Amino acid sequence: MGGALVRGWVKAGMAAQLTVTARTQGTLDKLLADCPKITTTLDNRKAVRDADIVILAVKPWLVEGIITEILPELNQSPATQGGQGTKLLVSVAAGVRHERIDVYCMPNIAAQFGQSMTFIEEADNAGIVAELFGRLGHSKVVPQRLMNAGMMMAGCGIAYVMRFLRAMMEGGVEMGFYPNEALEISMQTMQGAVALLRETGLHPEAAIDKVTTPGGITIKGLNEMDHAGFNSAVIRCLKAGLK
Fold this sequence. Notes:
elongated; single chain; ProC C-terminal domain-like fold; 51% helix; two-stranded parallel sheet; alpha/beta; five-stranded mixed β-sheet; Rossmann fold; 7 strands; 2 domains
């Protein structure tokens, strides 16, 4: 996720504002190959020292140790604030709470391409974070009770969408297309559906009605999806992570 965020912000023209750390020089070298204008270091405290906003993009089990390491720098005022206040700490580590974290957010890996759906938990500085992550796609500030639901719909949901694409692709292969052709057809069809809904503001069911002729082939396919429990399966997969 950290790499996706960095690459996304670089594409948004923010390379000069980014200082990136990692556990190994090899990881930093890979990022530098794609993003030569960023600043890198293996020293977490040094990276935090002159920062205004610190993004904690590490595995959940590493959060406590990293915060302990950088805490002396976090509690120092950023130079840009003229000695006022402390640094803003933002975490994208799922399910980890800490008293020093100011804002929790949950982007997805499409951030790398400026197409993330990011959920930000309500907090005093949520607006600042929403603006920052808005450069990576869409961002939405929600109460804490909806953060896990947002993660299932967007963080995990991107995998569910890809599973649907794989199934559509496999169906295309069974009907005679080569795999690469079937995948391209499936992706373009999904992009077209999303564009139609965005541009028209139609409810999905209203848009479906526009392409569903009485007695036609579309309704036969839709009914097969219903017979197979498609809607129920999607809802159950989204709710599975909330249990």
